[in-house]
Amino acid sequence: MKESLGRRTLLHGFGLGAAGLMLAACTDAKRPERAAAVTRTSTPGRTGPGPRTPGPVATGGRVVTGWSEEAQSYDPAVGYDLHAWEVSTSVLFTPLFQFDGQSGGPAPSAAARLPQVSEDGRVYTVHLRPGVRFHHGRAVTADDYIATWTRVLDPELASWAASYLFSIEGALEVNEGKRKSVSGLRRIDDHTLEVRLLAPDITFAGVLCLPFMAALPMEEIRRLGKDFGRRPVGTGPFVITSYDRKRQRAVFQRNPHYIWRGTPFIERLEYRWGIAQAMQLRQLMSGELDVLGEGAPVALGPQINSQPELRERYVVPIPLQGTSWIGLDTGHRHLRDRRVRQALNHATDTEVLGRLTYGSQESSPLPFPKHLPDFPRTARPYRRDIDRARSLLAEAGATDLRLRFAHDGSAPWERLSQVVQQQWREAGVEVTIDPMSKSALDQAMASGQCDVFPRHWYMINPNALDLAGNCFASDGSSNYGGYANEAVDALLAEARRSQTMADCNRLLARAEQLLSEDPPGVFFSSLNFLAARNPRVRNYHMRGETGSYYDRLWVSP
């Protein structure tokens, strides 16, 4: 996922003084009356893949989620910010497969079973689950998937997701406008789809879990036109019944055609946006909101941490498959020398940086996320060693190193940049901090005009190739530092062709070791999502790849 895409820009800064007054003033507010009745039942219904649902549960009722901003679009091929992503992954659409458990891989959802894969790893045969219907009642067929995926590749749509399909034979030609149909897609019958890849790609099963791969009805896209982005028709657990830009809210009702019968447990979901994050936290505590879509604001970390009853009652840290690091321009006359980049890693106290994020990050000075499942990690993390940093800088002839650290002023980077400035000064490196707008920073990063810059990556496929292939491969779409290492490229390519996840992870572990020895940046943390929900919301789960699981949460009577 491109880091410039905003769906995982979770936490933005707010002034702490006024917010602290808000928190102090709201603890005794009364819960507003709920619109829908909640009734008790003894056993949970069947749920799709994902975190488990223990019983007993309650059914009915309403959940209200707050957002800072309106989503770009509810069309999964167009919207990519966090608001749009949660609607696509958790509310309106059901892909062929979904990630299982809290960290597992693909499991059948709209598909009847896992795909059959040919011996050479290039041909996937997908059997559709009978009975899957769109919100308006029509049965889903293999033709709907072919049409949907071809639409993602349409150059006129300019979907952010198109590159995820480029491993399919003929997909790139469609995206380049050279063909109208994808040669690697074939309908065998109404409930069987064949996909031919250009080469084996172990990440492809994970791609089939992503929301833009869920079937869409082309007749509804044509009928609704531009309105499809606000009132889309899908196959997910909820149906959108209202989208009101003036009142800044969208309403979703339980889908009677949902394939996982018995869920969702709640009857109604309501999204409200245009609410400052400090006000969201106040409304969460007063009962006006049940869930904060963007989580607890990291800028309010000092207040939240100073009130244990607030933190323990409302905030739940959830580990993500994502990392945060300080990007470096490897084309810089000094930063192109690996010894200089090693020196900056030795000059950085990652434990201190981690503490400044108030739980949204945890110290992990390695390129790949800390909690990757079944990953045989061999890379050695850097430890702060000022003498070693100075020695490496001297060897590289960079004792007069001057660098510009650009950031967009968002939490926690405003404070982190100041601490990094102090830490690197001890090694003899002078850092100038250059705050700018987010759009200006994005442009400066993309054009190679930043010496030092903030980076973070939230994986939407639980395989380190999602991070490494985009950020550290020489041709990666988000390789803003211009990093190039032929040995790393070769390992990533071999890992993608692997037949088993064990082989893939073994190769990726070697790639991580090389990335640590020849660092493209200063790695310091793995990411957490600071989920914020009212305790009346039960069985709340979230995965970074998937978002909040609205299909299986329930509310106390």
Automatic annotation (TrEMBL):
Sequence ranges assigned to domain Solute-binding protein family in this UniProt record: 106-478
Keyword Glycosyltransferase among UniProt keywords: no
Pfam families, alphabetized: SBP_bac_5
Annotated InterPro entries: Peptide/Ni-bd, SBP_5, SBP_5_dom, TAT_signal
Keyword set, alphabetical order: Signal, Transport
Ranges annotated as biased composition (Low complexity): 39-60
Region Disordered, annotated ranges: 33-60
Compartment(s) where it occurs, according to its Swiss-Prot or TrEMBL record: Cell envelope
Family: Belongs to the bacterial solute-binding protein 5 family.
Protein name: ABC transporter substrate-binding protein
Native source organism of the sequence: Streptomyces spongiicola
Lineage of source species: Bacteria, Bacillati, Actinomycetota, Actinomycetes, Kitasatosporales
